[in-house]
C-alpha cells in the first residue's frame, strides 16, 4: 500500500488536539479588525483613479524544489499543529519524525525528477493571472504576484518582507488578497496558511502601542470548490483522456476522482473539506452529463490513525480485480502536480495496476482555462469587496483552537455570532 508510514507515533499523540495555550492576538488593540476597517491610503496614489496596486498572494503548502530541501520541508510540516497536532512536544517530536522520514521521501522526489514542481507552477499561474486581471480590472491594477508557502520557500515571512520592499504596508497601507490555491477548504490546509499569515502580520505590522495604522488591508479568497472555470478545466482534462479510449468503450470507463485524505479526527471535528471535495466532483460530473460511472476516493494517508476512505489504491486494485480495467484517475484537490500525482498515482497506483486502461487525467498546471478561472475568481472577489466568504466565519463544531478563532476574527473583520464561538 502506498504511503504507509514508517514512523510510529501513538494514536494518542496523533489524535491529541494540542495547541490550546497559543497566545491571543499580539496586538492588544480594541479594534478586532486591527486596522482593517480603517481607511488606509493606498501605496501610490494613481491620478487615473486606480485603487491599485493590489498584491495577489497565492497561499499553498509548497514542496521541496530539490531533494536537499526535503528535511526542512518535512520539519516544518510536522511542526505544524494545525496539520498534525502533537501537543506540547510538537517542536521536539516533529523534527524527529521528519528526520526519520526524510530519506524515503527524498527518494520519491528524486524519482519524479528531483523536486516538487509546485513553486514553478504557482509562480507561473499567479503571474499569468495578474496579467489577465490588469486587463479585466483596471481599477485595481497593477496586480502584483506573490507566493506564500507554508512549508517551503518562499515562506509567508519572506513574502511579507517582499511586500514591504515593494512599498506595501509599513505605514503605507495598500491592499493585498490572500488567495488560497486549495479549491476546497480544510482547516489543516487553507486554515493553517491563514493562521500563519495572521501570525506574521501581527509580528511584522503591529506596533508596540497596538496601532496598526498604515498596515496592509487583507482580504481572503478562502474556497472555490465549484467555480465553473475550475469545473470546466477539470472536465476538459477528463474529456481529453476519455478520447484516448476506443469510442465504443468510452462510456464504460470509470472515473475515479482522487483527493488527499484527512484523518477521521479532523473529519469528525467538522472540517468542511470532504463536503467541498464532493461538491467539486458533483459539479464536474454534471458538466460531463453524468455519462460515465464515477467514485470519489482518498489517497496519501500517513501514520497509524484512522483516515477517510475508501483509499484510492485499494479502489483501483479492487476494480481491476473485478475486470473493470478502464479507469481514469482524476486529481481533484490540488491544482498542480506533486508527489501525490507524479509518484503515488503514476509510479505506484497505475504502475501496480499493470493494465493499459488505467490512466490519469492531467493536473491543471499551466492550463489556460484554469488560469482564466483564477482571474475570474479574483475579479469577482475584488468587485465584491468582502473580506472573506460567509462560510469562513463559522468554526468547526469541535474546534478548540484559539488561533483559529483569532484568525477568523481578524480576517472576517466582524464580531462572530455566539453560535460560532
Ligand atoms: C488538499 C490537499 C491536502 C490535504 C487536505 C492534506 C492534508 C494532510 N496532509 C497530511 C500529511 C502530509 N502531507 C504531505 C504531503 C502533501 N500533502 C498534500 C496535500 C494535502 N494534504 C500534498 C500536495 C503533499 C505533497 C507535496 C508535494 O509533493 O509537493 C506529507 C509529506 C509527505 C510524507 O511525508 O508523506 C505529510 C506528512 C496530514 C496529516 C493532513 C491532514 C490533517
Ligand atoms: S479546526 Fe476548523 S475552525 Fe478551527
Ligand atoms: Fe498532506
Summary?
Helix content is 40%, strand content 11%. With 421 residues, it is of the alpha/beta class. Helix 11 (339-353) links the parallel strand 7 (327-331) and strand 8 (358-360).
What does the model show?
This protein has 421 residues and is of the alpha/beta class. It folds into two domains: 32-223 and 369-419, Rossmann fold (3-Layer(aba) Sandwich); 228-360, Rossmann fold. Helices cover 40% and strands 11% of the residues. The chain contains 13 helices and eight strands. The protein has helices at residues 11-15, 70-78, 90-111, 118-136, 156-165, 190-205, 228-242, 264-269, 273-287, 312-321, 339-353, 368-384, 402-412, and strands at 54-60, 143-149, 175-180, 217-221, 254-260, 294-299, 327-331, 358-360. It has a four-stranded parallel sheet, with helices on both faces. It has a four-stranded parallel sheet with strand order 6-5-7-8, with helices on both faces. Strand 7, helix 11 (339-353) and strand 8 form a beta-alpha-beta unit. It is globular. It starts with 10 loop residues before the first helix and ends in a 9-residue tail after the last helix. FE2/S2 (inorganic) cluster binds at residues 187, 191, 269, 271, 395-396, 399, 401, 404.
Spell out the key features of this protein.
421 residues; alpha/beta; Rossmann fold; 4-stranded parallel sheet; 13 helices; 8 strands; 40% helix; globular; binds ligand L6N33NVT; binds FE2/S2 (inorganic) cluster; binds fe (ii) ion
Amino acid at each position: 500500500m502506498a504511503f504507509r508510514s514508517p514512523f510510529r507515533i501513538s494514536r494518542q499523540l496523533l489524535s491529541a488536539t494540542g495547541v490550546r495555550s497559543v497566545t491571543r492576538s499580539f496586538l492588544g488593540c480594541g479594534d478586532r479588525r486591527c486596522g482593517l476597517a480603517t481607511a488606509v491610503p493606498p501605496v501610490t496614489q494613481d491620478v487615473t483613479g486606480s485603487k491599485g496596486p493590489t498584491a495577489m498572494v497565492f497561499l499553498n503548502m509548497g514542496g521541496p524544489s530539490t531533494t536537499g530541501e526535503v528535511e526542512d520541508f518535512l520539519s516544518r510540516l510536522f511542526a505544524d499543529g494545525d496539520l498534525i497536532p502533537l501537543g506540547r512536544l510538537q517542536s521536539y517530536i516533529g523534527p524527529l519524525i521528519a528526520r526519520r522520514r526524510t530519506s524515503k521521501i527524498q527518494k520519491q522526489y528524486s524519482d519524479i525528477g528531483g523536486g516538487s514542481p509546485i513553486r514553478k507552477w504557482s509562480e507561473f499561474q499567479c503571474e499569468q493571472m495578474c496579467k489577465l486581471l490588469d486587463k479585466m480590472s483596471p481599477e485595481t491594477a497593477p496586480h502584483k504576484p506573490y507566493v506564500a508557502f507554508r512549508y517551503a520557500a518562499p515562506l509567508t515571512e519572506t513574502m511579507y518582507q517582499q511586500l514591504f520592499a515593494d512599498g506595501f504596508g509599513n505605514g503605507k497601507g495598500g491592499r493585498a488578497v490572500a488567495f488560497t490555491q486549495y479549491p476546497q477548504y480544510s482547516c489543516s490546509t487553507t486554515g493553517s496558511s491563514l493562521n500563519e499569515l495572521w501570525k506574521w502580520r501581527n509580528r511584522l505590522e503591529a506596533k508596540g502601542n497596538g496601532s496598526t495604522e498604515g498596515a496592509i488591508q487583507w482580504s481572503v479568497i478562502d474556497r472555490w470548490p465549484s467555480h465553473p472555470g475550475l469545473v470546466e478545466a477539470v472536465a476538459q482534462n477528463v474529456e481529453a483522456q476519455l478520447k484516448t479510449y476506443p469510442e465504443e468503450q468510452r462510456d464504460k470507463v470509470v472515473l475515479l476522482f482522487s483527493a488527499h485524505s484527512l484523518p477521521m479526527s479532523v473529519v469528525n471535528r467538522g472540517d468542511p473539506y470532504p463536503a467541498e471535495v464532493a461538491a467539486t466532483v458533483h459539479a464536474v460530473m454534471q458538466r460531463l452529463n453524468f455519462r460515465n460511472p464515477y467514485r470519489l476516493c482518498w489517497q496519501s494517508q500517513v501514520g497509524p490513525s484512522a483516515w477517510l476512505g475508501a483509499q484510492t489504491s485499494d479502489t483501483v486494485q479492487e476494480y481491476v480485480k473485478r475486470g473493470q480495467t478502464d479507469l481514469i484517475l482524476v486529481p481533484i484537490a490540488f491544482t498542480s502536480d506533486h508527489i501525490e500525482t507524479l509518484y503515488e498515482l503514476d509510479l505506484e497506483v497505475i504502475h501496480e495496476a499493470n493494465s493499459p486502461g488505467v490512466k490519469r487525467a492531467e493536473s491543471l498546471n499551466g492550463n489556460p482555462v484554469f488560469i482564466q478561472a483564477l482571474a475570474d475568481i479574483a475579479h469577482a472577489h475584488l468587485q465584491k469587496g468582502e473580506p472573506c466568504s460567509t462560510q469562513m466565519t463559522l468554526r468547526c463544531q469541535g474546534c478548540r483552537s484559539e488561533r483559529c478563532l483569532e484568525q477568523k476574527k481578524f480576517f472576517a473583520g466582524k464580531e462572530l455570532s455566539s453560535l460560532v464561538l
